[in-house]
Amino acid sequence: MTPVTTNAMLPSYPVTAIPFAALKAEMLANYGPGLAAPGTLKKLSQVLDLVEALGIRSSDQLTPELVGRFIAARPPGQSPHTLRSLLMTLRTVCSHAEEMRYVMVSPFRFRRMKISRLVRVGPPAGKRHCTRDEIRRVLVLLEQDVARKRGWAGWRSRRLLAAVATAAYTGARAGEVLRLHVDDLDLPGRIIRIRPHDRKLKTPGSEAAIGMPPALVGYLEAWLPRRLDCPLGFSIPPADQIPWLFPGTRRQGPWTQGAPGHRPTDRVKAVAARAGVVMTFQMLRRSWCTIAEGLGLSQPQITRQARHADPATTLRHYQQREERNLRDAVAGFEF
């Protein structure tokens, strides 16, 4: 799979190879905490470790042959989508090395090394989103928990209900929902402003206002007066020091962590399983985009709410093929 090169493809500037360990440290510094989303840094670190494990010791070893070995070393059963994502990160590393003149040319510059040629991806397997009925069943079950439970269990049920409703009705990312501040809400105007707060958002375009349906206003109006409830004698900071819409139990930060089984993602999966539904926060985001399409929202409107830079991203990865949408779309088709 060695591509044919021409003199026109090769740069005329001098190239100085550096140890791969130095390139690795430079990349991790560029994408360090506060400079990129944690998921981006985690994936970059994973790719750099994989390349290092292949015996690469110098930047000038970033060649098409390395890309071939990287693909060949994938573990059995790895999804093509995962491989494609890892190759895109490896391409970022190679592009940086080329830009800094640590390598003559990135291997991904060659036509035969385009990622779309290296790995073919089909539609992802398995359940990707929830139907309106499934989401309704989970919300109803959570409302029953709120009515039945008391004390800390009741407070946690109220928090989970409000968080799931916010994710389901807005399509916002889990990290955005769970890190919301109370002053991000404009209930009369039915607007939520997504802001960075204590960590960098996924993309620059993520910081924007999104709309909320009237149905969500009711959930949030019921939650806000109970947000700081706690047992008598339990010590929490003053109210003006608790800005989070969904605070942790001790009110010292947003509800993003917890013991195993009590993390937000664990709680969503558990309550959904009780309702006979498979559900995650990511599935709720895809569900919103899919249901919005069925309700007749335009592609620009769906993309703006999802805050993607490219409508193709929303259409390809978030708006799922749902029989109900297809059936309703052609309901008036006749001759």
List the helices and strands and how they pair.
Layout: H1 20-30, H2 38-53, H3 64-72, H4 80-99, H5 115-118, H6 132-148, H7 151-170, H8 174-178, E1 185-186, E2 191-193, E3 209-211, H9 214-223, H10 264-274, H11 281-294, H12 299-306, H13 311-317, H14 323-329
Antiparallel strand pairs: 1-2, 2-3
Helix pairs in contact: 1-2, 2-4, 6-7, 7-9, 7-11, 11-12, 11-14, 12-13
Distance between the termini: 53 Å
Class based on secondary structure composition and strand pairing? mainly alpha
Output the strand order for the largest sheet.
Answer: 1-2-3
- CATH fold-level label of the largest domain: hpI Integrase, Chain A
CATH class wording of the largest domain: Mainly Alpha
Q: Quick one: how many beta strands? A: 3
Annotated CATH homologous superfamily of the largest domain: Intergrase catalytic core
Strand-and-helix sequence, N→C? HHHHHHHHEEEHHHHHH
Q: Which consecutive residue ranges, at least 5 long each, have pLDDT under 50?
A: 1-8
Write a structural description.
The protein has 335 residues and is mainly alpha-helical. It has two domains: 13-118, Tyrosine recombinase, N-terminal domain (DNA polymerase, domain 1, Orthogonal Bundle), CATH 1.10.150.130; 132-322, Intergrase catalytic core (hpI Integrase, Chain A), CATH 1.10.443. It is 47% helix and 2% strand. The protein is built from 14 helices and three strands. The protein has helices at residues 20-30, 38-53, 64-72, 80-99, 115-118, 132-148, 151-170, 174-178, 214-223, 264-274, 281-294, 299-306, 311-317, 323-329, and strands spanning 185-186, 191-193, 209-211. The chain has a three-stranded antiparallel β-sheet with strand order 1-2-3. Strand 1 (185-186) and strand 2 form a beta hairpin. Helix 11 runs parallel beside helix 14 (323-329). The longest helix is centred in the N-terminal third of the chain and has 20 residues, at 80-99. The chain is globular. The protein starts with 19 loop residues before the first helix and ends in a 6-residue tail after the last helix. Mean pLDDT is 90; it is low at 1-8.
